[in-house]
Amino acid sequence: NFRFVGGQSCENPELGGLQPLGASGSVDFSLRRIFRLGSSGGLSRLDASASLRNATDATVYDQCGLPQPGRTLQFQFRVW
């Protein structure tokens, strides 16, 4: 996935006006796989996923002066 945030303006009291924040973008990757763990009873399936968010470690602001997290690697396992 590619996410794009357009240019923004932020009220900055230290400057006494609006401060422009440039446009930015980030790239995310994810993989997901469902495995069968045996017989068809309870807890017989495993859902495993891995994702890399903001792979380029870009600085992305979603609010004035508050950056989103940098590069983040996430693993998730779910059994049902």
Shape, please?
rod-shaped
Please work out how many helical segments DSSP would assign. 0
Give the number of domains. Answer: 1
Gap between N and C termini = 28 Å
Number of strands: 9
Characterize the biggest β-sheet: 3 strands, antiparallel
Cα gyration radius (Å):
20 Å
* Order of H and E elements: EEEEEEEEE
Classify the secondary structure makeup into a structural class: mainly beta
| Percent range for β-strand residues | over 45%
Please state the average pLDDT score: 90
Helix content: under 10%
Which residues sit in consecutive blocks of at least 5 with pLDDT less than 50?
Answer: none
Strand order, biggest sheet?
5-6-9
Name some characteristics of this structure.
80 residues; mainly beta; two-stranded antiparallel sheet; rod-shaped
